[in-house]
Amino acid sequence: MTFMANLPPTQELQQKDAAHHLHPFTDTQELNEKGARIITRAEGVYLYDSEGNRMLDGMAGLWCVNVGYGRKEIQEAAMRQMEQLPYYNTFFMTSHPPVVALSEKLASLAPPHINHVFYGNSGSESNDTVVRMVRHYWASMGKPDKKVIIARKNAYHGSTVAAASLGGMKGMHAQGGLPIPDITHIDQPYWYGEGGDMDPADFGLMRARALEEEIDRIGEDKVAAFIAEPIQGAGGVVIPPDSYWPEIQRICDERDILLIADEVICGFGRTGNWFGSDTYQIKPDLMTIAKGLSSGYLPIAGVLVSDRVAEGFIAHGGEFAHGYTYSGHPVACAAALTNLEIMEREHIVEGVRDRAAPYLAEKWAALGDHPLIGEARSKGLVAALELTPDKAARAPFAASKGTVGLICREHCFNNGLVMRHVGDTMIIAPPLVISNSEIDELVNKAAKCLDLTLADIK
Ligand code: PLP
């Protein structure tokens, strides 16, 4: 069956979709009323829908299509691997060439103290894996009571039971009785929303020291790890003050707490280095990866594990009773390896650091002058706009938070731009290959949609 030729009419697709397809993070009643937008193809940084509309994808899918759409080389690598060996597992002492090659490549890209990788299929699974892995590590080291994992409010680490528990989204916790035991949450380093009159550097230190207070409250001998995204993505692109990460690193080192960096969004070039941990010069014991690993072309994810942790449980722990049927899937590994080869050959990470990020930073900052914007912030190729009725007070919109953001998002869709809203914060994370003229287009469209939003709420 071909999905492109003889495409049924949009309405028919929407009706069938609403009738049979339960979507993630979607209100099904609303879906029934409005119908889904049907995306049919994509090229470079552009998406095309079933009505022929072209949209600049300001979110790289879900923060993942780092090398842009339409890369034949990845498609061909996957096809070749399908022919050679479409599937075999990596359980019980078996392996295959693509997983060997990808593991070696990841060890070479990761910081020098990280040389091991454990595979899964999604960021959520990777974060599930770290929960079990850090507890297994401490038990192997003779400290089975070190079980508690400290995470942050408003963090997003995925949707499985353990990953949603690590996450700090209240709405997610409310559905299903989360979090599971032995996971606690401290406040986030969100200066714009929570910093009040404090200097950002002081605020960053204060929020980092909340970790120390939480360790003291629980007891160091009970705490296994702290997990955080270098930049909180789904929480609204929360870029921490520069004082934050060095203080977190100090606390983890002094208190013998493992540091887990969730690199699912920040990994593979998003912040202008291979990993967000490189950008913030931290030395995590574990890093969870997904999304940009294959640029979303096939599902693959993993946990990058430091020598300290790997050697600890290899030497003392016996078998790690954990794994997924598709851990290190050969076709996904072949696609990921080709994706990373493209990133290296085209110097995509350097391109973000030296060209695209500074260019976007300048244009994006200028949006801060718009009457609706309280703050325009960016780091690498991830950025946010805070919508506000009162710039000076950094005030949120009072009634039904998120409504103005939603209005803005709809204007973006209708004007050929995908920009996401988190409440009244607008966010972007475009493909890393976006050109300067495409950045101009993105920013100009965003400005137009801010004008349209302002006109609507006046
Ligand atoms: N961690 C972070 C920081 C994420 O942003 C996401 C997804 O957006 C996840 C984990 C979960 O990844 P997945 O959707 O692949 O399970």
Describe this structure in words.
- With 458 residues, the protein is an alpha/beta fold.
- The protein contains 17 helices and 15 strands.
- Helix 5 runs parallel beside helix 14, helix 10 packs parallel to helix 11 and helix 15 (348-367) runs parallel beside helix 17.
- It is globular.
- The structure holds pyridoxal-5'-phosphate.
- Pyridoxal-5'-phosphate is lined by residues 62, 122-124, 127, 156-158, 229, 233-234, 262, 264-265, 290.
Give me the secondary-structure topology:
Blueprint lengths: L9 H11 L7 H7 L4 E5 L2 E4 L4 E4 L2 H4 L8 H13 L12 H13 L4 E7 L2 H18 L7 E5 L8 H6 L3 H5 L8 E4 L4 H4 L5 H19 L4 E6 L15 H12 L2 E5 L13 H4 L6 E4 L11 E6 H10 L13 H16 L2 H20 L5 E7 L2 E6 L15 H12 L2 E2 L1 E3 L2 E4 L7 H22 L1
Parallel strand pairs: 3-13, 5-6, 5-7, 7-8, 8-9
Antiparallel strand pairs: 1-2, 2-3, 4-10, 9-10, 11-12, 12-15, 14-15
Helix pairs in contact: 4-14, 5-14, 6-13, 10-11, 15-17, 16-17
This protein binds pyridoxal-5'-phosphate.
